[in-house]
Fold these 2 entries.
Entry 1:
Amino acid sequence: MADKPALLSMKGICKDFPGVRAVDAMQLEVTEGEVHAVVGENGAGKSTLMHILAGVYQPESGRIDFAGHNNVRIADEQAAQKLGIAIVYQERSLFDSLSVAENIFAGRQPVRLGNWIDSGAMAARAHQLVQKVGLDVHPHAPLSSLSPAEQQLVEIAKALSLNARLIIFDEPTAALTEAETKTLFAVIRSLQKAGTAVIYISHRLEEIFAIANRVTVLKDGRWQGTLPIAEATPAELVRRMVGRDLTNLSHSAPINNNQTKAPALEVRGLSDAPSRRQRRTTLTDISFEVHSGEVVVFAGLAGAGRTETALSIFGARPFRTGNVLLNGRAVHIRNVPQAIAAGIGYLPEDRKQAGLFLEMSIAHNVAAASLKRFGSIVTSEKAIGRVAEEYRERLGIACHSTRQAVRSLSGGNQQKVLLAKWLLVEPRVLIVDEPTRGVDVGAKAQVHRLLFDLAERGTAVLVISSDLPEVLTLADRVIVMAQGRIAGQLGRDEATEERIVHLASGMAAAGHPS
């Protein structure tokens, strides 16, 4: 690929934010029809560099050449699109109130008879695009009715609608199932055959080796090298990303043998009845338990009911029948404050929408679930700041000050802030939904270590994860869900990726041998 003429050349790119140089003398070269991966830890400058290319940010210095246009200035996103550059953002840029078709063609609707929107043509084209990305939804369906994974596929369909010469995928599989990821890879390969170049950003190194031709490594806003994928190894990429060999990426949690006491959390026969107006999974006879000091991981495909189960336990989703017991006693939790008061914490899958107050400071996010401890009438800002500093040091939150807004942090550091919030609460039961989605390998190892530490201190930890290596790394036991039911349970010694996938596919429930 390197011997072909460059479609994109970025040289000497610098970008400053208040108090920090986010990108420093960066370089990147992509050829026509190439899948070029960009990797690095959270905060390495990947998203900043892509935002410059997409016209969101303007660099302080440097040169960009694209498709025969020399030293171009990409003033805004419209200018990028006119050049032939599209981006699929890690954080969705869609509108819940619009339909699938309206989101795909927002600001670019086909018109007829002057300025009348041709809704029929728009729906027909949108239908072709959603089919191309493997999504079975009606073009007129409201975006709010789709799952996060389905919304991500709509985002990808929107990028395809631009017929761009270069498409940037920023963590595109973070919310996708294995089957949806395979569909995405098929789409990328078809784009490649048609001559479209792709920049692919992912923390999942196995994806890089499956799809990329070359890989560029960034660290601390600087270029660390570009390698043909055939000459790269995971160890080499990690070493360049973090500046050292990263060991102990596959810790094994201590097997919990002290299970003679009543379970810290027990769920018996939890079931619900879905509303006809809402698309939501029906839960049927969900029964399981988690002991103090144990890490239990829920595995399964998207839509299997894992998050719905967690939300029901946490009082954020009603259920029809069943009981929740804490330390052997039945509790009646009907809302989130009651769950927190009972000693249950919950880190949601979508930390930005449901877990954090993005415009608030790091310190106030850490204190958000424990405000009473900082004063009953007037909260002590000094005490909040002191506690936030303690967790900043303990969790290694990369920030200039705990007074800065959470929005300014990388995804991995936002996840650490959310963990700090619940560590401060000291819950007896902690539910963590997709704990390392969108975080780098170094932050992932830190998050895993924190979960192990919590278990060793006696917390019952319930994890939901779609990352099979993570499932096997964390779990004392694996509970696999399929179609709103528990398809099976596996101890650590018997859990394998093959067995988990077999149960998650629903084959065991359908009578197939396991």
Entry 2:
Amino acid sequence: MPARVSSPEEQRRCRLVIRVQLLIVAISIAMGAKYAAEGARQISIMIGLCVLLQMLGPVAVRVSGSHRIGAQLLCVAMWSLFVSIATLSGGIESPNLASNVAVVLMAAMLAGPRAGVAWTLIVVATFVVQFILTRHGILIRQTLGPEAVLQSRLAEPIATCFAAGVIVYLYEHGKERMLRELDREKTLTEATNRDLRVIFDNCGQGFLSLDRQGRLTGEHSAVVDSWLGAPQRGQTFSSILATRDALTAQMFQIGWEMLLDGAMPVEVCVDQLPRRFASGESTFSLEYRLVGQDPERFEKVVIIVSDISAEVAQEAAAAHQRDLLEIFDRILRDASGFSLFLEDAGHTIGMIAAGELGDAELMRALHTLKGNSLMMGLSVMAKICHELESALVESGSKPGDAAVDALSREHKQIEAHVSRFLQRQARGEITLEPAEHSAFLEHVVAGRPHRELASEVRSWTLGRSERKLQGLAEHARQLGKRLGKGSINVEIDDHGLRLDARWEPFWSAAIHVVRNAIDHGLELPSERLESGKGRATISLRTSSTPQGLAIEIGDDGRGIEWERVRERALSLGLPHETQRDLVDAIFSDGLSTRSEQNEVSGRGVGLAAVRQVCDALGGRIDVESSAGTGTTFRFVFPIERHSRLPHEVAV
């Protein structure tokens, strides 16, 4: 059989057609010899030509691989033979004409019922034409002798019956052989499937196959039942997922529709499908394999489900371990600052859990908590905040109890780890820089009034603003590396100021200004090189001025695109006529000049949180920015908020 013939049934029919063709050739040769012996030379020649036509049948089957083509060619050859003999031996009176019935049998058995009906019509039409032509004397009447006619009438039925019997035998014999082969292949297939099922059911992974409509097509590995609740054939995978993780199910359905839409490459669409989902306390990964020669016209998709709960737990444990190292390093450098952060974070989480915050306030609280968590090295808490933010933006609904509980548990776990250590660190120890100690000695020697000296000593219980600026500086350096902004130079000038706990909310919010400076303001190293700039610089300053306490955060980046701010303010219905309007606009909820969101910025809530804190402290915000030279945010708080000292400001 040709290589292109694949199905057992097609192979059987091709073999049957070839055998019948060879049988008919043998019978035709015998008939030709008979007519030649009777002196019917024209009939013998015509039979010889038809034999040549019949010989093309096996060749056609070999070349085309189709039994129907060979069968039709055989029928044409037989019909031509019988019609030719009838035409040359008496027309309607020819004994050979009845043999056309065999053509119908051949067509129905070898080419199918439709072919049998078609050849029935052709044979009936042949009889009618032969009758008409004979009646009008167009065809020559019987030219064979009475004895030859008698022999023909006897030989034709015998040959036809013999051929029909042989054909039926070949058909049934081939059918039985094919059925035996199919049974053997079925047995082997079932055994193979059982072996594969044993392997799949014990490999620790779940396997499902989906059709183009995203429906389950057939069998699946046993572990899927326990993971996904015994899905049924024809059930969509999105509905299966919905019983475990509704958000992932929604994302899968959207991704699947994009895959079928074909607007983007298949590989891109597959990458957009969700890669993991959570079910209870377990986490599962999803892998996708397209089935089909052409990925763009895939027939099925095989989904491989794996339980990665252990790996996720290990990753979480490693992340917590890294966070703990960061926490203790932070406590060693600024225990009071970390303690205040934990206290503020607990208060914020409490308000979130109680549902006391509106959508805008909730977004600001989460964004601020995320920023401060990152600054303190708490990557796990920052990740939870980011997920809550994303869920709030995507679904438009407030976080569920389970999500808020996860945030609360993380905060309590951190408190449990560090509470005893913080208690030891907070035993009333006062630290002085060498410069502060030397300055105080100089004041004592110089005979400064006792009241001023006492005030200076009292200020030592306050936190140095330098530590706060150093925390922001460290976060700026880490964030710069993470965002590909290179090694950032940070300039700190604290002017020896010490500040009390009332300013903690501002330092918590100030992280947003630093993050925006890194993400929005600073260019990539390649861009700075093209514009003739060197290493990126962030400046952090605190100072005492006649107007009050001043805190400045600046960068030497690209500057604020004021026209872009004006466009965004206009689209949000905010005032945008004056420069002051534009400054107010960038501190408004929902205004961001980024076209996409990331874990750093793009939600338009960070600077709004800064303004909220400044307003609460009675401060004023000024922004100076020039294209290509950078931006400086200046926060000035009124003089009555603090009292001036010779070398420090105690607030």
